[in-house]
């Protein structure tokens, strides 16, 4: 048994040296390895909340239960700006944006408009946006030349993306970026949304969830 313990300890220490070799550090204790990993995670977390110049950053944190994903939206001060109440699954999107325990916006699919043939043939979706119980507009989605086209009728914001795209831009009618979405930043189970300063942040976040919903639909089809 004593020999086994010695062998196990030697293996752990060897693994520790390999783990930190890429960082240019040589250590022989598991405690030091853990410390380095924690420092790296802390740095990544701090960078996660930093927006590009001229933008406001929102971080969407995702947790999963057996039936659907649960989302919380944090601002750059790491405080919850909105909570999401509802469902976003591979078949259904019906979401409420909640602020101070009040529903302030809704996003849901108008399923009567759905048209889905073969992916390379035709895809049509329509999503309804409501703010403070008032109709705001429709986001229409079509498929053309291998890419998805999103278009909001009220202010002409649009996005053109491939199903596998990780980084996405929403642009206005002058082709200026108003929102930048990163679906897979370095921190696990997060999504970042950068909204141009002096633009409608709630609308940009609603638009982002429509994009997420359609990608989820198609990735599971």
Mean pLDDT across all amino acids: 83
Shape: globular
Structural class: alpha+beta
Rg estimate, integer Å: 22 Å
Number of strands: 13
Number of helices: 3
Largest sheet: 13 strands, antiparallel
Low-confidence runs (pLDDT<50, min 5 residues)? 1-12, 14-20
Distance between the termini: 53 Å
Helical content, roughly? 25-40%
Hey, roughly how much beta strand do the residues contain? 35-45%
Query: SSE order in H/E notation?
Result: HHEEEEEEEEEEEEEH
Q: Could you walk me through the main structural features you see in this protein, from its secondary elements to its overall organization?
A:
26% of the residues lie in helices and 41% in strands. By secondary structure, the chain is α+β, with helices and mostly antiparallel strands. Strands 1, 2, 3, 4, 5, 6, 7, 8, 9, 10, 11, 12 and 13 form a 13-stranded antiparallel beta sheet that branches. The chain is globular, with a radius of gyration of 22 Å.
């Amino acid at each position: 048994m004593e020999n086994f313990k010695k062998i196990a300890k030697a293996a752990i220490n060897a693994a520790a040296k390999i783990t930190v070799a890429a960082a240019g550090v040589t250590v022989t204790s598991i405690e030091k390895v853990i410390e380095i990993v924690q420092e790296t995670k802390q740095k990544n977390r701090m960078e996660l909340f930093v927006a590009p110049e001229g933008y406001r950053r929102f971080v969407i944190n995702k947790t999963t239960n057996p039936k659907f994903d649960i989302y919380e939206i944090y601002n750059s001060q790491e405080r919850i700006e909105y909570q999401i109440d509802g469902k976003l699954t591979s078949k259904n999107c019906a979401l409420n944006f909640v602020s101070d325990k009040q529903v302030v916006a809704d996003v849901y699919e108008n399923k009567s408009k759905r048209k889905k043939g073969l992916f390379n043939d035709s895809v049509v979706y329509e999503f309804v946006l409501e703010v403070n119980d008032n109709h705001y507009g429709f986001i229409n989605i079509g498929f053309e030349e291998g890419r998805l086209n999103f278009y909001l009728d009220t202010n002409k914001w649009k996005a053109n993306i491939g199903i596998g795209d990780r980084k996405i831009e929403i642009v206005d009618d002058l082709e200026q970026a108003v929102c930048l979405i990163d679906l897979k930043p370095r921190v696990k189970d997060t999504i970042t949304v950068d909204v141009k300063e002096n633009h409608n942040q709630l609308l940009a976040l609603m638009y982002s969830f429509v994009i997420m919903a359609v990608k989820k639909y198609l990735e599971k089809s």
